[in-house]
Write a structure and sequence with these properties.
278 residues, Metal-dependent phosphohydrolase HD sub domain protein, HD_domain, HD/PDEase_dom, mainly alpha
Length: 278
């Protein structure tokens, strides 16, 4: 790691902060361990993506800080509500940004850098990137969202393959195990859009939402990794064998193939505001 990328004291703070929530409760311990592992894997993913974009030392340090802190609110969320489901607890992006500000964590970053980190942490889990984001905000936010998705896909695919790294209610949102796909969820995907979380009625609906994240990927390297790891195929195999599932897989697979072939323009921009094709 280049000197300008060092964030070791923040990493030490994060480990201490996360462990302070573990206690003797096995369920809480497992939840904290899950989010700690996820955090460091997202840091790894963002490093790979950043390298593919030839980020400077300053840019890479900012990206890694965002990854380190993006889910820091998950620990208070679980401690208070015993769930990672935002809809029945707190918005974990907002919670994370509030903790960072309250703990005064970013004292050796400039004011502009602090605002940028807080912005990206706050918005990393929202349905869409804000339309009024600056070019720099949009670039780093899309980068963080890609890195986050890549590891979440890993977790859910392991779950669907029988490897219970995460609690079932985390992966399936506590949705009924009904083996059907809701009409509105199917409609959202076939229109090339992100599934509205309010339309989720069954566990397969949430799987479809996860497949639809491909429409919100931005960095060329993200598409390469998604294809190499076959996450779409792994989720598709867990869906019920029905016409809707086949159509959904064909839709997301076609979009991924088009991105891999460079037939669609990327939504990501560089920190300087230029189109970034990765």
């Amino acid at each position: 790691m280049r000197p300008g990328q060092d964030i070791s004291r923040y990493t030490a703070w994060f480990r201490n902060y996360a462990s302070s929530f573990c206690g003797d409760d096995g369920q809480v311990w497992d939840a904290c361990a899950l989010k700690t592992r996820h955090t460091f894997r997202v840091m790894g993913e963002i490093g790979v993506l950043g390298k593919s974009l030839f980020l400077s030392s300053r840019e890479m340090r900012l990206a890694r800080m965002m990854a380190l802190l993006h889910d820091v609110g998950r620990f208070t969320q679980y401690a208070r509500f015993k769930t990672f489901v935002d809809a029945v607890s707190v918005d974990h992006g907002d919670e994370s940004a509030e903790i960072i500000a309250r703990e005064n964590l970013l004292d050796d970053f400039s004011e502009c850098e602090r605002r940028l980190i807080l912005y990206c942490v706050k918005w990393h889990n929202k349905k869409e990137v804000p339309a009024d984001a600056s070019p720099e905000e949009e670039f780093f936010l899309r980068l963080l969202r890609d890195a986050d998705k890549l590891d979440i896909w890993r977790v859910v695919c392991a779950h669907y393959n029988g490897k219970m790294e995460a609690p079932k209610e985390t992966v399936e949102l506590g949705l009924p195990g009904d083996r059907s796909i809701s009409q509105n969820v199917h409609k959202d995907i076939m229109a090339g859009g992100i599934v509205n979380s309010l339309d989720l009625k069954t566990a397969p609906d949430f799987m479809v939402l996860q497949m639809g994240w491909v429409f919100d990927l931005n960095i060329d390297k993200s598409f390469v990794l998604l294809n190499k790891r076959a996450y779409l195929e792994k989720i598709a195999r867990a869906l019920p064998p029905c016409r809707e599932a086949r159509e959904i897989y064909q839709k997301v697979r076609s979009y991924l193939d088009e991105r891999l072939q460079g037939k669609r323009e990327t939504k990501a921009v560089s920190a300087t505001g230029d189109a970034n094709n990765g």
